[in-house]
Amino acid sequence: MNNKILTTPISDEDVKSLKIGDIVYLNGTLVTCRDTGHKRRVLSGIVPRTDLKGGAVFHAGPIVKKVGDKWEMVSIGPTTSMRMEKFEKEFMEITGAKIIIGKGGMGEKTVRGCVENKAVHAVFPGGCAVVAAAEVLEITDAEWLDLGMPEAFWVMEVKEFGPLIISIDTEGNNLFENNKEIYKESMEKEMAELSKKLKYMNY
Amino acid sequence: MNTTEKFLDTTVKFINLVAKVLPDDVVERLKELRENETVAMSKAIYDSMFENLDKAVSLDRPICQDTGVIQFYVRVGTKFPLIDEIGDLLYKATLEATETVPLRHNAVETFVEKNTGTNTGKKVPYIDYEIVPNSSNLEMDVYMAGGGCSLPGRSTVMMPSAGYEGIAAFVADTMVNWGINACPPLVIGVGIGTCVASAAKLAKKASLRRVGSRNPEPKAAEMEEALEKALGNIGIGAQGLPGKSGVMCVNIENMARHPSALGAAVSFGCWAHRRGTISFDKNMDYTLLDHKGVTL
């Protein structure tokens, strides 16, 4: 396990050494993009002002508050990454983003995207949204506000944003899928034992 | 302040509390799970969770950014003075709390497919009513149904030959394949009913029952305990990563069924299980049932 800090823009070299299970922290620019944002970027050709080359993307829909003419971060945590599975590979190809942060695992298509584009997927502990908000220095831009608060493209500066647990690395290892295989095996054993105790049907 | 204003004001404050402070039973169980966890990564995540709970209070912010679709489970006495106005008042309370807490805008109007920007919409907030005869009180659960733990919910109707072991397998399969993304440790509500709708409704009610409570039917209680143990042994920890603390509880709610149908459903709650129960008397004086020692 190595604990390190990534700073945007992130290079191929920065991510190549990361392995599943490593914990990293992020400095620099982080943008939120989730369901509708991914769909818009990949399908519509609408391009945000913020360049994502070497960038960090957070699957998150925050609570923000407008104070004067500035947006203030109230609460921001990860959302289920698997919902973005359909578009993530293309999203990485088009944007050049290097780290995708979210919650839970992602699938086979994203794994291919990570290998081909030298990118990683990482998870931030879900529900720890105040911890995350405290690591946001400021919101520097807000795009796609027409999509509503959760789906807008929020641009932020962050400092030591994490812990981020690498769940897909550039070699195509997938932490959650590996674990799932172990869980399934263990589940079969547990259910076989349990079913003996649940013979409540009369016959 | 008249009784209507008092009910509204208290409900707004209660929504604020539920967004920022977990109920006593949940906190107690999370502490136990944290103490018994042995896997380093899962322990580290528990540390973040507890740091987050502290920061939510000290910084006065919602525990999780996904403050959910606001759901009210209302048990209203037929003689409760505001019985005719409850729906309107809960709608107003949601609008107001969305501004003051603040809550995320979580209502996307279907077909129009547009976020309303107010956290309210058609049938949102979601209100479930039960009538309590000859009572002048109202008791209400407020629940913030986040997207992450709503996503893996499933309901089905099995053939009775599947048996209770079939229900257990359905729950386990849902947990391992989808529940692991729903922010474990999970509250696992299981409904055993007679059709897809009754099972789903019971599963939801089960997920809102207190952690540590048991179904009064001895066999159902036995199944709750056995399933809780079996799911706990799978090796899932906090956030679906390896560990032994991924299950907060299994609660089962049941009803009689058609001889030919075995309805089964599962509804999950995440570790940040933002549920609270409040009771109002006819003067709109309140009692908090899950947040001991807290004054609104």
Give a structural overview.
The complex is a heterodimer of chains A (203) and B (296). Chain A has a single domain (3-174), classed as fumarase (Alpha-Beta Barrel). Chain A is 32% helix and 30% strand. Chain A has six helices and nine strands; from the N terminus they run E-H-E-H-E-E-E-H-E-H-E-H-E-E-H. Chain A has helices at 12-16, 35-44, 85-95, 108-117, 129-134, 175-197, and strands at 3-7, 23-32, 56-58, 63-67, 70-75, 99-102, 120-123, 136-143, 153-168. The longest helix of chain A has 23 residues, at 175-197. The N and C termini of chain A lie far apart (55 Å). Chain B is an alpha+beta fold. Chain B is 38% helix and 22% strand. In chain B, the strands form three sheets. A five-stranded mixed β-sheet of chain B has the order 4-1-5-10-11. In chain B, helix 1 (3-20) packs across helix 4. The radius of gyration of chain B is 19 Å and the shape is globular. The mean pLDDT of chain B is 97. Chains A and B meet through helix 5 and helix 6 of A and helix 3, strand 3, helix 6 and helix 8 of B.
Could you give a short description of this structure?
The complex is a heterodimer of chains A (203) and B (296). Chain A has 203 residues and is of the alpha/beta class.
Q: Residue-averaged pLDDT of chain B, rounded?
A: 97
Shape of chain A: globular
β-strand percent of chain B reads: 15-25%
Number of strands of chain A: 9
Radius of gyration of chain B: 19 Å
Strand order of the largest sheet of chain A: 2-3-6-7-9
Order of helices and strands of chain A: EHEHEEEHEHEHEEH
Q: What is the chains' assembly state?
A: heterodimer
* Spatial ordering of strands, largest sheet of chain B: 4-1-5-10-11
Low-pLDDT ranges of chain A: none
Please give the alpha-carbon distance between the first and last residues of chain B. 16 Å
The proportion of residues forming helix of chain B, as a percent range, comes to: 25-40%
The overall pLDDT average of chain A reads 95
